[in-house]
Amino acid sequence: MNSNRLSGSTSPYLQAHADNPVHWHPWGPEPFAEARERGVPVLVSVGYATCHWCHVMAAESFMDPETAALINDNMVAVKVDREQHPDVDAYYLQAAVALSGQGGWPMTVFTDAEGRPFFADTYFPPVPKQGRPSFRQVLEAVSRTWSDERARVDELTVRLNEAIEASGEEDGAEASWAAQDVTAELPTRIVQKMRASEHPTGGFGGAPKFPPSAAVLGLVRWAERTNSDAARTEVLDIVGRTMAALLQGGLVDPVDGGFHRYCVDENWTVPHFEKTLYDNALLLRALAAYSARRPDDALVAEALELTRSFLTRGLGTGVPGLLASGLDADTVVDGTRVEGYTYTWEPGELESLGLSGEGDVDGRVVLTRREGLPLSPELREALRQARSSRPRPAVDGKVVTAWNAMAAVALTEAGDPESGAAVTTALWNHAVTTDAGGSIVDVVRCTGSPQAPGTLEDCAWLLLALVRLWEHQGSCSDTVEIPAAVSELVRHIQVTFHRGPGTWYDAAAPVAGTGVRPRDPYDGATPTAVAVLSEALSMAGTVATSLDDADVRAVGARWSAEARRILDAHVDVVDRHLAQAGGWLCALECHLAGPVQATVAGATPSQVSALRTRLGTSCLVLSVEQGARLLGTSDSAGAAVVQMCRAGVCGVPTALGDDGPLH
User: How far is CA 465 from CA 122, 213, 406, 470, 507, in A?
Assistant: First the structure.
């Protein structure tokens, strides 16, 4: 069939290519079957809606009739939204790095009819430029090689596929007793490596500068646990320097809130302007944790409030509680896509308000605040008025389960449990299908077409969001029986993703006909899913074992044990990449010391809020009124009481004042 098949897709990225003359297929078995029937290779083009260079390559090559004819005549074309299919993206990204030495988007991959790659790279220009061939030259070379050197292509696809499969199986042994002592030492080793890796301009590496959200959260959690005041101060100072660098440069939008994806320079000046839900959710978590320890940091307090508002107002969808995936890097100005136009300024615009800008983005500058001062409400309103007349970037409105769950967790930890609960309950109803008995039939990554099955990342973050909902609302929210939902989701994860003791696959099935189930235990743009699963199981176990119900306590103990097995099984993985182990540091701190657990009885909402502020964002505050139990008795008859526990050790119940425990 000679046609473009993307018009029925619900992915904004695929919709943007629906008018291409290329005969695109969405991801699925059909294009590979057609390639097998025709005896031709498959072009797999991977990108996402807010990607600037994806739009560039689309305009330059995929809209060109001659280029499209080369594709249509010699191969089958598949367009993949990497945010819908992270397992597909992960598999081909490994291939791109192995074959070209680089990975990124747009990603250009050529495969056989089983989906096994033999050529993979990123962006190609329409004409040869800066040592790179044109895309048409690549297409012609691939077609010749497929026709004239098929045996060599077949050998390469087999060898590369075997190497990718082997790399996934090597990372992470099964849990063992021998690993347990090493596991306990890991947090300090990670922190020592991060200390040594701190960059002079903030963060833990050079340009491009990505915000180290998981590392910041992990460092704050380590600082909360250490008994050394000097070490605590040193580590919080590292976090403070990173936060100052992020917030004084161009990464943050101090006008409408939200963070951009990354900065292209070492000084955090010029960003790549897309705003993603996952970046902002993860940064909100980190900001909330640090702000609880350094509440006098005015720039952090400003960013915390603006980011929280950006999530709930700037990324809203037509469905209450559900959040969009992000905002485009580009703005369409007079029919032309211009990167960052909405967020950049003419130098005179800022000077007239006594503000400064840096960088050069097509003659425009980026607002920076190197003096470290928040904007006054009057200045922010003036900037909003100036910006209001500009066109706005497009919204990627698809609802991704993992990223919405990240936002639910972040909003709850940032002091807005009502918004967190709204996201969690809406997401459960949106992404989870159950049968009449309440058993989970399916969890999706995002609804619509093409089908996007749920991944371990989706389920792990949803589990953590449910645990936070359980903590704040007890056993039952408006539409979800929370303990039953948590237990059933754990069962679904076990059946769908389990590999061996302590180890898990990221996807429910292999990629196409490759036989490879992606499994990546390393942090990327988001923390590795298996570390998030460990954190979620640790938190679920802590909540469950605090309850009066003996059966629930027994199940909670099993969840905690599985969390520990995950940590023990990945000791070597973490040890090889200590400076990039932020997600693992969060999970380790959560499990080895356990979150601070405060059980209250007779407490007012204001007393509970003050207690949370004092204990930090990693704590769990449970109430007797919602099924938690106090161990022992209190002398404070008739008064509000609290019992503090950590790592299985509990103090005696004591009177709870307006600012925390009285003793």
Answer: 35, 18, 7, 9, 20
Residues 662, 633 contacting (CB under 8 angstroms):
no
The answer to whether 89 and 107 are in contact (CB under 8 A) is: yes
Q: Are 56 and 2 in contact (CB under 8 A)?
A: no
Task: Using alpha carbons, select from 19, 10, 171, 32 the residue that is nearest to residue 109.
Answer: 32
For CATH 3.40.30.10, the residue range(s) in the chain are: 12-170
Q: How far is it, in rounded angstroms, from Cα 637 to Cα 112?
A: 74
Provide the token pair at 635: 């002398």
Residue 421, SS3 per DSSP: helix
523 by DSSP, 3-state: which?
Answer: coil
Could you list the beta-strand ranges (E) of 355-434.
356-361, 364-368, 395-396, 432-434
Its pTM stands at 0.94
Strands 326-327 and 275-276: antiparallel
Phi then psi for residue 4, to 5 deg, are -90, 125
The CATH code for residues 12-170 is 3.40.30.10
178 contact partners, CB below 8 Å, separation of at least 6: none
Q: Is 645 exposed, middle or buried (0-12, 13-18, 19+ CB in 10 A)?
A: buried
The tens digit of pLDDT for each residue in 344-391 reads 999 999 999 999 999 999 999 999 999 999 999 999 999 999 999 999
